[in-house]
Design goal:
By secondary structure, the chain is α/β, with parallel strands linked by helices. Helices cover 39% and strands 16% of the residues.
């Protein structure tokens, strides 16, 4: 069974007003979107519930983060149970900004991934290397290490609700983008690793998407790569061109 193309929009800490949020959502609601692409948008947590009520067009909503506990004295955190109860189907875990700015370790990312899956959520699991690591030839070692932490705590059946997002840190928000060949090389490595570390079936069925300064102009070649199953889009998800990225396989 072919893997369904997946496009996620990570709004990060944007937009700064409800009015701007409604402009973005109205654009998406009125667009002609490819029904063969799964579309998920991740607004700031403040906007999750109101956005979920107004978004249409088959678009789903994702949280940008959650904690690894169900409830308790964890000021500022959201639990998987709370997200599931609110009808939020997805959560992004392990984004490089969480790993670097908020010092989340691969062990914590794994714990959060397991907690989210146990809480009936689907997970967009982010992995990727820094520029220093890439220049040192350590890309596959870094990505494998990040994945290994998660593989250790998951059951094979859990992987049916995981989308892996390969996001080279040096390409996020920098305007730099991995070439199609660079993206394909890492995606193929991830798929081979899953085959060995989990199972051939998980390797074949898991969607591996690319993130890192994705735009309407550079997504076309990336989308032709055999192991690129979609995109996690940052800044461009706030712009009209997000529709073009969603429709890249149809166009």
């Amino acid at each position: 069974m072919p893997r369904k193309f997946f496009v996620g929009g990570n709004f990060k800490m944007n937009p700064i007003s409800r009015a701007q949020k409604e402009i973005i959502i109205n654009e998406l609601n009125g667009a002609d979107l490819d029904p063969n692409t799964e579309v998920v948008i991740a607004p700031p947590s403040l906007y999750l519930l109101p956005l979920k009520e107004i978004v249409k067009n088959g678009i789903q909503v994702s949280a940008q983060n959650c904690y690894c506990k169900t409830s308790g004295a964890y000021t500022g955190e959201i639990s998987p149970a709370q997200l599931a109860d609110a009808g939020i189907p997805y959560v992004i875990i392990g984004h490089s900004e969480r790993r670097t700015l908020f010092h989340e370790t691969s062990k914590l990312v794994a714990q959060k991934t397991k907690a989210a899956l146990d809480g009936s959520l689907s997970v967009i699991l982010c992995v990727g290397e820094t520029l220093q690591e890439r220049e040192a030839g350590q890309t596959t070692q870094v990505v494998e290490s990040q994945l290994q932490a998660v593989v250790t705590v998951l059951n094979e059946s859990d992987w049916g609700r995981v989308v892996i997002a390969y996001e080279p840190v040096w390409a996020i928000g920098t305007g730099k983008v991995a070439t199609a060949a660079q993206a394909q090389e890492v995606h193929a490595y991830i798929r081979q690793y899953l085959s060995t570390a989990v199972s051939p079936a998980v390797s074949e069925n898991t969607r591996i998407i690319y993130g890192g300064s994705v735009t309407a102009s550079n997504c076309k070649e990336l989308a032709t790569q055999i192991d690129v199953d979609g995109f996690l889009v940052g800044g461009a998800s706030l712009k009209p061109e997000f529709v073009d990225i969603i429709n890249v396989k149809r166009n």
